[in-house]
Amino acid sequence: MTFLSNIQSVAKYESKLLIRSWFFRVFTVLAIGITTLFNFLLFVSEDTYGFWIAMSIPSNIPYLILLLLNTGQAVIAIFLASDFLKRDKKLDTSEVFYVRPLSNAEYVIGKIWGNLRVFLLLNLIIMGITMAFNLTVGEVDWIAYLLYFLLISVPTLVFIIGLSIFLMLVLKNQALTFVILLGYIGLTVFYIEDKFYYLFDYMAYSLPLVKSTIVGFSNWEVILNHRAIYFLAGLAFVFFTISLFRRLPHSSRSNYPWVFLSVCTLLLSLACGYWHVHSILCQGDIRAAYTRVNNQYVATPKLFIHQYDFSVEQRLDDFLSEVTMRGVALDSSAVFTFCLNPGLTVRSVDSDGQPLKFKRDKQIVLVDFGTNLAKGDTASVTFKYDGQIDNSFCYLDIPPEVLQASKKKFLFNIDKQYCFQTKDYLLLTPETYWYPRAGTGYSDENPDWQQTYFSNYHLKVKPLAGLVPLSQGEGKSDEHGVYTFKGDFPSQTISLAIGDYQQKSISADSILYSIWHLKGHDFFSAALDSIHDTIPSLIRNVKDQLARNYKLDYPFKRFSLIEVPIQFVGYERAWSQAQETVQPEMVLFPEKGALFDDMDMKKQVQNHIRWSRYGDRNEISLQEAQMRTFNNFIWRFAQTEGNYNFSSGSRGKGNLSSEANPYFLFPQIYNFRYNIFSSEWPVANRVIELYLQKKSENGGWERQINGISNNEKAVLLLEKRTFKELLVDMELRNLQNNIVGQEASRLFARAEINMGVEAFRDSLYSLLKRNTFLNIKFENMLDTLGEISRTDIRSLLGEWEKTTPLPFYSLGEPTLTKITNKGGEEFFVLKMLISNNSDYDGIIHMDIRKDGWWYQPLEDPRAKTKIEMPAHTSKEFVSVWEDQIRNVEINTMVSGNLPNIISQDINNVKQERNKIVKDSIYILPESSFDLPGEIIVDNEDSTLFILSAPPIVGLLPKWLDEVEETPFKYSGISWWRPPLQWTATTNDRYYGKYIRSAFVIKSGDGSQTATWKVPVPEVGQYDLYYHVFKDDELRWNNNLQGEYHFKVKYGSEVEDAYVNLRKANEGWEQLGSYYFDSDTVRVVLTDECKLRSVTADAVKIVKRY
Question: Looking at 799, 834, 858, which one is the last position of a domain?
Answer without folding.
Answer: 799
